[in-house]
Design brief:
- The protein is of the alpha/beta class.
- The protein has one domain (about 1-175): 3 Solenoid (UDP N-Acetylglucosamine Acyltransferase, domain 1).
- It is built from three helices and 20 strands.
- The protein has helices at about 10-25, 30-40, 110, and strands at about 1-5, 45, 50, 55, 60-65, 70, 75, 85-90, 95, 100, 105, 115-120, 120-125, 130, 135, 140, 145-150, 155, 160-165, 170-175.
- The strands form four sheets. Strands 3-6-9-14-17-19-20 form a seven-stranded mixed beta sheet, with no helix packed on it. A five-stranded parallel beta sheet has the order 2-5-8-13-16, covered by helices on one side.
- Helix 1 (about 10-25) packs antiparallel against helix 2.
- The longest helix has 19 residues, at about 10-25.
Length: about 180
């Protein structure tokens, strides 16, 4: 995990900029506004589709592979630093209302008063299907071809070629 202070002036300005672009896209999901959202990312592959309601904090460390589909109301809490990146592979399906949360806060109340954020990368392999309403927490890697059942909370790494579901997500079967 890496610690950063999201209240620094430069980070506040970056979040405001990304927020304005995301709000504009949600209000008017045109090709031009989608292009603006994708321009926030460090990489957006060919054929990426993002539906309206998308939100990210910064975008600069988000990488999305080719032919990935992101359904409505996706939230990606990313960090402005490489240690808090979100990487999504090729041919992924991200269901509606999915949250990818690479940023969190201290559990200890004294530490939390410092207003610092903790971040760890989220890595999603190729051909992964993440069902509606799934929450993926910081530091998680999801292997190729995995399926995450709707409403699951992913707190630990998921191996390739498995189906998981639940809170917390547990392995249901191999594919």
């Amino acid at each position: 995990m890496y610690i950063f202070n999201s209240l620094k002036k430069e980070y506040l300005m970056l979040r405001k900029h990304a927020g304005e672009i995301c709000r504009l896209f949600s209000k008017s999901p045109s090709k031009g506004n989608l292009k603006r959202v994708k321009s926030l990312f460090s990489h957006s592959g060919e054929g990426v589709i993002i539906e309206s309601g998308f939100h990210c904090d910064y975008g600069s460390q988000i990488q999305i592979g080719d032919r990935t589909f992101i359904n409505i109301n996706c939230t990606m809490l990313d960090a402005p630093i490489i240690e808090g990146n979100i990487t999504i592979g090729d041919d992924c399906l991200i269901g509606p209302n999915v949250q990818l949360l690479a940023v969190s806060h201290a559990v200890n109340p004294t530490e939390r008063l410092k207003k610092e954020n903790f971040t760890a990368p989220i890595t999603i392999g190729n051909n992964v299907w993440i069902g509606a309403g799934v929450i993926v927490l910081a530091g998680v890697t999801i292997g190729d071809n995995a399926v995450i059942g709707a409403g699951s909370i992913v707190t630990k790494n998921i191996t390739a070629n498995t189906v998981v579901a639940g809170n917390p997500a547990v392995k249901i079967k191999d594919i």
